[in-house]
């Protein structure tokens, strides 16, 4: 059943989907790592592909920028296409001194200034967290691979250009990095009783020098991509 944002039919999308923000990064992952690849979506340029990784079916699809965008795409995957697991593979800005460009961050939880959680009508504050079964597998693979990684909370902001920047305040309470999508993904997964994890590669740092180009962000995050794919085939 196609949606206004996805032309796929049921059965076109695997049970586990990797989701980068950039649809060109989705294309890169599909062409670089998957075999028997088929494109299932081109609506609005948000490319989606299904193929096989080490013989197991995996899909990859862009989710765009920001909480509203990933909120739409992840909701449809969980609720209309019977997807069980989504692994976001994205970029983030480092906040802590020991977090460096090209380090990997596993988002255990996500602080946010977004009002996305208001729709659920919950009293108090919705504290979205990763699914431990995916997190545990991914961290074990990172250890095995020998890459530098961090596990903890991230800050997810609704605005890229901000008049009032709260990054230093969240840095002071231990947030590892800042990005723009994780709470919607984790909230949608919780409501649908599905699984989600965000894996991030640090592309720049808010408190020290160093950053990657747009092209490097598309193609150089191979450690993160391989960890996500190897996690996906264990689910």
From TrEMBL:
- Asked if Zinc-finger is a keyword of the record, the answer is no
Alphabetically sorted, this entry's keywords are: Glycosyltransferase, Transferase
EC no. given is: 2.4.2.1
Q: One matching Pfam family, short form?
A: PNP_UDP_1
Q: What class of enzyme is it?
A: transferase
Task: Tell me the ranges covered by the Nucleoside phosphorylase domain, including all copies.
Answer: 16-232
Report the superkingdom from the record.
Answer: Bacteria
Q: Which biological process, per GO, is one annotated for this protein?
A: purine nucleoside metabolic process
Query: Mind telling me what this protein is named?
Result: Purine nucleoside phosphorylase DeoD-type
Q: Record's InterPro entries?
A: DeoD-type (IPR004402), Nucleoside_phosphorylase_CS (IPR018016), Nucleoside_phosphorylase_d (IPR000845), Nucleoside_phosphorylase_sf (IPR035994)
Q: Which SUPFAM superfamilies match?
A: Purine and uridine phosphorylases
Question: Which residues catalyse the reaction?
Answer: 204 (proton donor)
Q: Which family does it belong to?
A: Belongs to the PNP/UDP phosphorylase family.
- Residues bound to phosphate are 21, 25, 44, 88-91
Q: Does the keyword Phosphoprotein apply?
A: no
Supply the CDD domains for this chain.
PNP_EcPNPI-like (cd09006)
Quaternary structure, per UniProt, is:
Homohexamer; trimer of homodimers.
Q: Lineage of the native species?
A: Bacteria, Bacillati, Bacillota, Clostridia, Lachnospirales
Q: Name one GO molecular function term.
A: purine-nucleoside phosphorylase activity
Q: Where is this site: Important for catalytic activity?
A: 217
- Which organism's genome codes for this protein? Butyrivibrio hungatei
Reaction catalysed by this chain? uridine + phosphate = alpha-D-ribose 1-phosphate + uracil; a purine D-ribonucleoside + phosphate = a purine nucleobase + alpha-D-ribose 1-phosphate; a purine 2'-deoxy-D-ribonucleoside + phosphate = a purine nucleobase + 2-deoxy-alpha-D-ribose 1-phosphate
């Amino acid at each position: 059943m196609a949606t206004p944002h996805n032309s796929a039919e049921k059965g076109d999308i695997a049970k586990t989907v990797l989701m980068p923000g950039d649809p060109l990064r989705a294309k890169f992952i599909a062409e670089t790592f998957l075999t028997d690849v088929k494109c299932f979506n081109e609506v609005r340029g948000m490319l989606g592909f299904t193929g096989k990784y080490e013989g197991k079916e995996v899909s990859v699809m862009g989710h765009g920028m920001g909480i509203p965008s990933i909120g739409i795409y992840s909701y449809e995957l969980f609720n209309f296409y019977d997807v069980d697991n989504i692994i976001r593979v994205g970029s983030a800005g480092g906040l802590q001194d020991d977090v460096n460009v090209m380090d990997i961050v596993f988002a255990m939880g996500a602080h946010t200034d977004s009002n996305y959680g208001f729709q659920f009508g919950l009293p108090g504050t919705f504290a979205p967290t990763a699914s431990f079964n995916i997190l545990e597998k991914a961290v074990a693979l990172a250890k095995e691979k020998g890459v530098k990684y961090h596990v903890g909370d991230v800050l997810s902001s609704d605005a890229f250009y901000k008049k009032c920047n709260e990054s230093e305040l969240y840095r002071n309470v231990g947030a590892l990095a800042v990005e723009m999508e994780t709470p919607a993904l984790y909230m949608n997964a919780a409501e649908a009783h599905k699984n989600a994890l965000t894996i991030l590669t640090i592309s720049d740092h808010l408190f020290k020098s160093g950053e990657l180009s747009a092209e490097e962000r598309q193609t150089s995050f191979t450690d993160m991509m391989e960890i996500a794919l190897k996690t996906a085939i264990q689910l």
